[in-house]
Write a structure and sequence with these properties.
Low-confidence stretches: none
Mean pLDDT: 82
Oligomer: single chain
Shape: globular
Number of domains: 1
Largest sheet: 4 strands, mixed
Number of helices: 2
Strand order of the largest sheet: 1-2-3-4
Strand content: 25-35%
């Protein structure tokens, strides 16, 4: 069982349904997740479930904000962009 013990968690998630990597920064005390996506402008149900799975059971009611992120030009460099977007 994974537990978040800090006030802020930054993690790269793989979204298997889209074969895509994104960066998520979660402020655990406010349950706000900032999602940095380099291609898509919507948040999938799979991604929300992935984020919730990392949260403690009493903090799974979260708000997901889609943040402005630099757009990738190619179709296979999302992992590099996911890492670079959170400075």
């Amino acid at each position: 069982m994974r537990r978040v013990t800090r006030d802020k968690m930054v993690q790269i998630f793989h979204e298997s349904s889209r074969n895509h990597w994104v960066l998520v920064a979660v402020q655990t005390d406010t349950c706000i997740a900032e999602l940095y996506d380099t291609i898509y402008t919507t948040v999938s149900a799979e991604m929300i479930a992935n984020i919730c799975a990392t949260m403690p059971a009493d903090q799974r009611n979260i708000t997901v904000k889609l943040m402005n992120a630099q757009r990738q030009r190619g179709n296979s460099d999302c992992g590099v962009f996911a890492c670079a977007n959170k400075r």
